[in-house]
Each structure stands twice: as C-alpha cells, then as structure tokens.
Amino acid sequence: ERRSTWCCLAWTLLVATMNLLVFLMNLLLMFVIFTIVLLPTIVVVYFGFQCHSQVLHSAAHYCKSFLDDNSSSALIILGFVIMSPLIVVAMAIYCSLARRLRLFLCFQPYSRAVYKGVKWCRYEEGGLCSCARGWNTQVKAWV
Fold first, then answer.
1. Which residue ranges run through the membrane (predicted)?
2. Which of 22, 44, 87, 127 is the residue whose CA sits 20 to 30 A from 11?
C-alpha cells in the first residue's frame, strides 16, 4: 500500500539520509585505504618537488647534502612510476574489504519510502546490512 504524500516525503528524506551516510562511510574507507597504500608515492614525490631548484628549492639540510636537481627529478619520476601499481593494489584492497563487509548491500532502495510494509534490513538476517537470506559467497561478479 502506498504511503501518504507527507509520510512518503519524510520516509524519502530518511532513506536518502541513510544512503548518504553509507556513501560517506564508503568514501571515508576508500580515502583511508588509498592514503595508507599511496603513502610511499606521496612521500617520494613530495621530497622530489621540495628539493628541486626549479620548483620549491628548500633550504633544508637533506636538500643541500643529499639531493641535487638530478636526484630530485629521479625521485619525482620514481614516485609517478610506482603510483600506478599502488593504485591497483589500493583498489583491490578496498573492493575486497567492501565485498567482505557487504558495504554495498547497506544502500536502501527508495521503494521503502513509497510503500508501507516493505521489510527493512536487519543484522540478524546475515551480515552487516544484508537483506538476503542465505547469500551465496561463491557468486562471482563476472559470471
């Protein structure tokens, strides 16, 4: 049975807020994973740009004693070269964690706001936010 107009609007705001919170939680998890995995690249590129005379040319001790323009350029190139495989590793870690925690099943459809009596997800039904009973963990996305 359909909800009234005002009730539907209130439930739509509730479902949209829940979906936004789940989205922000996924975004925060992705940001943390990518930051940790890409930290070596960030550090190497930072020091390369900081010590290069054409960019920032810092007066720090390590820039004067260890890094000249050629070694700074090498650091910048090395940082950008190792970035591609680390992005792949970070995305694999995030996707594996999201699948294991079933994070994408936490999104609620808007039919819950429009119709009365639609069953809400519960923790007891098999997972953090899973609505499906007996969810098959052997199902592959590329079937």
1. 20-49, 74-95
2. 127
In tens, the pLDDT along 109-126 reads 777 766 666 665 544 444
What per-residue confidence (pLDDT) applies to 76?
93
Give the side-chain half-sphere CA count within 13 A for 101: 14
As a whole number of angstroms, the distance between CA 25 and CA 18 comes to: 11
| Interacting residues of 126 by C-beta distance below 8 A, sequence separation 6+ | 132, 133, 134, 135
CA dist 63 and 128 (Å) reads 50
Classify residue 137 as exposed, middle or buried by CB count within 10 Å of its CB (0-12, 13-18, 19+).
Answer: exposed
Radius of gyration of the chain (CA): 24
User: What is d(CA 91, CA 86) in angstroms, rounded to the nearest whole number?
Assistant: 9
User: What distance in Å separates the CA atoms of residue 110 and residue 113, rounded to the nearest whole number?
Assistant: 5
DSSP 8-class letter at 127: S
Could you tell me which residue, 126 or 88, shows the higher pLDDT?
Answer: 88
51-85: pLDDT as tens digits: 888 877 777 888 888 888 888 899 999 999 999 99
- CA-to-CA distance for 81 and 90, rounded, in angstroms? 15
Bridge partners, 2 (sequence order): 115
